[in-house]
Amino acid sequence: MNIIIDLGMHIIQSPKELFLLEDGITYLNCSYMSPMLKTVKQAGLVALDKRAQPWNLTVEDWFTKAETLRQLVANIFQTANDNIALIPSASYGLSLAAKNIKLTAGKNILVLEHQYPSNYYAWENLAKEQSLQIVTIRSSADKSLTQSILENINEHTGLVAIPNCHWISGAWIDLEKISKAVKEVDALLVLDLSQSLGVLPIDIEQIQPDFAVSVGYKWMLGPYSLGYMYVAEKWQESSEPLEYSWQPRKGSENFADLTNYVTEYKKGARKFDMGEVSHINLMPMALAALEQINKWDIADVQQEIKKLTDIIVDYKISNGTYNENQLNAGHIISIPLKDKNINELKQRLTDNNVIVSFRSTSIRVSPHIYNSEQDIKKLLSCLDEDS
Known about the structure:
By secondary structure, the chain is α/β, with parallel strands linked by helices. About 35% of the residues lie in helices and about 15% in strands.
């Protein structure tokens, strides 16, 4: 089918053709892992060939590409490239944040019910170390998730650790409102943006969290094991990195002088970069992915995907499972399973090559611009067969 999508300055004809997707596969699971862009695979193959001949590696491979990627990531965060660190995973970045956070004993750490474990375990450990209390915010049928969080921010709050939208339901959180409330009680804000960065617009300078992390293999369309971290300027000088690599040190580009050890780091958040930050195999793939995203207007991408999830909203309204009080991001939506036979449904989806995630008591649907209305209707047809 010939589909034309207007993404800012770029008109995309048949956007599915940008991705490596098999014919007959209805992939509605970007929240799990994005399918690969053709340019990303090609960049990876070229990188492997280059790695096979290390005598061809240059200063650009060791340092310059990381700086280019840092700038592309900063564009998506809408911040300066000096505020970006390159990390291997969300848990790495959250552990780094936890290492540097010191709270008064008895303070609360706010997390969401059924929050992704990477954004829970770090705080569970911090609570044990510093005698803090974990407060779990539960969703409510009669109010938005944002309202539920705001009602729990008070003088006892030390830290709020949340996403931009819930990874299971897609429930959207107004981070600007949360940030304002957090600052009013002199608390800290840490964000896990793994399920939104690259597909949901964010102005990190407007929100001003203390730290924010994202994996690179979901909505950032890149390879596994290369992620991104925002570190607010106020934390850059006083905080310690999670590991003590040689590359973030000043003058590290001069290989002949590496054993003249220095205490100074490069500017900004670079001190928090992971070891082996050059990631010779993965870096070119991440660059290809971020170059593509930077060509698009993320707000337009979000709007195009929302056209698809709005079909599911209508479906939920028709069967009485839609909650108008719970605002959703446009790229993730859940469908309650109610009394459906789960095993039969899974088999039916498999037989029809429809790929979604089963999370908690719902199906999570997470399309991207490679999907179409026909894909959504195919999913709903599978759901309705046993109704």
